[in-house]
Write a structure and sequence with these properties.
single chain, 171 residues, mainly alpha, 8 helices, 8% strand, globular
Length: 171
Amino acid sequence: GMCKKRIKMGQLYKSNGEMERARMEYLNVLQYCNNPVNINSVPVNELLVARQSAMVNLGTLFIDLNQFVAAMQILQDSLVSCQFTDMTNIRTALQEMTRLGNMTGNQELTQRAEGALAVLFPAKPKDVVFILDYSGSMSGGRIRKAVDNLLMVYDQYVSDFDNVMMITFNR
């Protein structure tokens, strides 16, 4: 719980341009994960996933600050295989390494990261657009049925990696 909140706060700070506060949130998570008291009391998988997530976010922060050597090192460290991993973090780290390779002209880094992405995540993200009519002709049961069907399609066919847009209209 605490680690997820700190990582979300770091992401919020980063999106607001408060890079130092974001860095401190990620470092606090790493400190929490390395604390001997927590190592003995918190499930190991939770600590490893939290550590990996903090490192990936710290790596993206370093890229945005043009600290490429630090970014490359921490992103590579975040990819060190362990028993418990979060595939979303791995995907993000590889995408950031691709971005880092492109920004620095490092073709080898770009090719390796893109190759790993292709092997681990072969499906390309989909672009999904939902269009919902909420005009008077859709009142009552019709709008409820339309929303229920929209949610059913979303739950069954949209993955975490897809791009989703919703358009509503009232005419």
